[in-house]
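Have a close read of this protein, sequence plus structure tokens, and explain what the tokens say about the fold. Thanks in advance:
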Amino acid sequence: MSYLIAVSGKGGVGKTTISALLVNRLIATGHTPVLAVDADPNTCLDAVLGVQTAKTIGGVREEAREIAGKGMVSGISKQQLLEMKIAESMVEGDDFDLIAMGRPEGPGCYCYANNVLKSALNQIADSYPYVVLDNEAGLENLSRRIVHKVDLLVMVTDPSQRGFDTVRRLHALTGEMAIEYGKLALVVNRVRNERMPENAEKVMEAVNAKFLVGLPDDDQLGRFGEDGKNLLDLPELNPVCRKLDEFINQALN
């Protein structure tokens, strides 16, 4: 049974960076293999993990539909064809694999792509002891039941009052949408001068989070982002890595 970590929050708070660093630290602490899931249609988790996504779920769905529509396949069902194409979209890294939702090709909503990703995850995830799901802003993917239940829901915010207000709203939405999760972590990203905002603990209590994690505004991590470097190469002595190691150790035990 996989341990599923879902990362959520408003746009621009560093969800993808933290998702990549969680993959980094899970690998570094021997919790492998990891399945990284890029459920954000903007598809940028691959870049920060040092790999390149050639195909996405949205893309292979259209490709499989076109092949089936032209009668170019025989001996297998449309669903089997789709499953084969999904397997081809997997990107293999060292101690992790990645699958990306991407954008649906052509007109229409994301509903079918979401359903395809849900089906793919149900088939694939059980092969991985740990899954990290990088969501789009908000809780859309979780509300659509891409996964049945999240073991650890990580809500990311910056240190601003607006960010904390968003966390409160997102937490209220989890109840309205009946999103199931085992543990909740409030991660405050880019904390300056190692000083957690005064209202952080109040928000932690308000949303009933089990963990409150402050990640420093780190120059080295910032340079990695500016230079487009692979975050798996961030040194383990980096202060953000050390904080996440402590968090993972607590969360998984």
